[in-house]
Amino acid sequence: MNITPGARLPATLNDLFLFAMMLTMAAVLTTAMVFQYHGGEIPCPLCLLQRVAMFGVCFGAILHFRHGYSARHDGVSMLSALLLLIISARQTLLDIYPRPGHSYIGSAVLGLHMPVWSIVIAVAILLAFAIKLAVLGGEGLRDRQPSPALGRPARWLSLYVVATCLINLGSVIVQCGVDACHTTEYRLLSGS
Q1: Which residues have C-beta within 8 Å of that of residue 108, sequence separation ≥ 6?
Q2: Residue 24 placed within a domain
Q3: Cα(21)–Cα(80) distance, integer angstroms
């Protein structure tokens, strides 16, 4: 089947969108790990759940680059973004009023802490998906494999995201053990 360049444009724009989204999420997750390992800022349980949701957003894009376009893959990313929004809104509302001995966890980046940034990121992802679906639709994307030009970079980025996820999983096991994480202590790291 011969594909005209005009018919390929929506699929290429979709590939670029998903690659940029996955690259952005990888950068956010890498920055969180730098703060954790270099800055000694141990993430709280809600912060860890936010990372899981961000990995879920990336997972939808990874599925796209491995198996081609499917609305289900976009759905995985959007549901993960919605989960990120719920978790980060909960944490922001818990920390919005300063209480003695309790404040936002971690350093602020450009004046905002990670839970607030996560709200901004989740809303931006959901808005970007809404715009993408409104502009590109889904009809021109079906039965199209990802762009060959983005294939190799997307595979490498996917491997990086999976490696980052595994490092985070190992870190959580060291931090919390195989039990649920607690907000008051980190048993394996505190020496008790």
Answers
A1: none
A2: yes
A3: 13
Nearest CA to 74 among 142, 159, 149?
142
- What is this structure's pTM? 0.74
**Does residue 103 form part of some domain?**
no
149 SS3 class: helix
Q: Is residue 102 part of a domain?
A: no
Residue 1 lies in a domain: no
Beta bridge pairs of residue 109 = 112
What residue type is assigned to position 103 of the chain? S
Q: Round to the nearest angstrom and report the end-to-end CA distance of the chain.
A: 66
Which pLDDT band, with edges at 50, 70 and 90, does 91 fall under?
confident
Contact by Cβ (8 Å): 30, 140: no
168, two tokens: 């985070």
User: Encoding tokens for residue 111?
Assistant: 């004046």
Query: How many domains is the chain built from?
Result: 1
